[in-house]
Amino acid sequence: MRRFLTFVLVVGSLFFLFKHGELPFLAQIQGFFSGSQVEHVEKKVEDTITSQSKQTKVSSIPATYDKKYTPTKIQTYWVTIKNGKLDVTGKATPYGKYYKADGVILYIDEPRANKKTTVKVPFSDNQHFHYEYPLAYSVGDVVVNLDEYYNGKKDDPNKVLGYAKYHLTDGDPYLLPSFMVQSNNPALKTLAENITAGKHTNTEKSQVIFKWVATHVAYNAPLVNASNPPIYSALQTYKTRVVLCSGYADLNAALHRAAGIDAKVVYGENHAWNEIKLNGKWQVEDPTYGSGFINLNTGKFVQSYHPAYFYKSDMHKAGEYHW
């Protein structure tokens, strides 16, 4: 009888502490009860959270958001895209409230920018949350994993409350810059203007850009059979002038975009080249093969301009890079 009265007294105390937001951790509870009693209390805790979840009113869908991007609900949070920003709002989940979460952690991936960001934002008053993250580009994929965090507890980006994924289309991806095709770089913009000066049609501009890349960049012959070859951005290619096929293709794309001409970087058969939009059609250009060849006797690169590769490649396309 004494044991039963003790149990009733402790459960009543726990309920009082819960009402005042001072519920002890389960490890502390274990000091008061036997194994079966601990399981009983644990079940009451989970039942309480479940009950709160059913009673909690999740805020309605955001009143203002970009109509092209449907808001994503992650339990008690909403993720939207608005004014070029990732917008996250909501309030702590019942579980987060019960165990006193400190705030929200976001794992943001922007492939076009080659950028992965982790952001921890503490709750405001009453465990509410609102955060805006400026996106690097207005086109391309964006993925965000969302979780609540607790100080002193290790964060795991693979175990989260949920995620949201958006494909941004606020612009032409083949005219806009990326982390590999830096068409907005001042040096590359100036170079494109100088190369195309006096040219009136896009075809004329494309021809002189292609020729400049093919005749001013050399192939890094010693790396032709490398098992893990480096990739070169447009800016790296412009600065070093000795690269592999990726460098040719990225610089050719960057100069075209800087000149206002749509350009893709495509790949296939362990090679990269371009597709350029001219007269409403995508035309193949291969500045690497247009640049010259490797002497099989010496293993050295021989600069020899081949204008025929302005409209062809010897390789078969397998896909397109997201940049």
Radius of gyration, in Å, reads 29 Å
Please state the overall shape, judged from the principal axes of the Cα atoms. Answer: elongated
Give, in order, the helices and strands. Answer: HHHEEEHEEEEEHHEHEHEEEHEEE
Biggest pleated sheet: 4 strands, antiparallel
> Low-confidence parts, pLDDT < 50 over ≥5 residues?
16-34
How would you characterize this protein structure?
The chain is α+β, with helices and mostly antiparallel strands and 323 residues long. The chain contains nine helices and 16 strands. A four-stranded antiparallel beta sheet has the order 1-2-3-6, with no helix packed on it. Strand 2 and strand 3 form a beta hairpin. Helix 6 packs antiparallel against helix 8 and helix 7 (234-240) crosses helix 8 (245-258). The longest helix is centred in the N-terminal third of the chain and has 21 residues, at 35-55. The radius of gyration is 29 Å and the shape is elongated. Mean pLDDT is 87; it is low at 16-34.
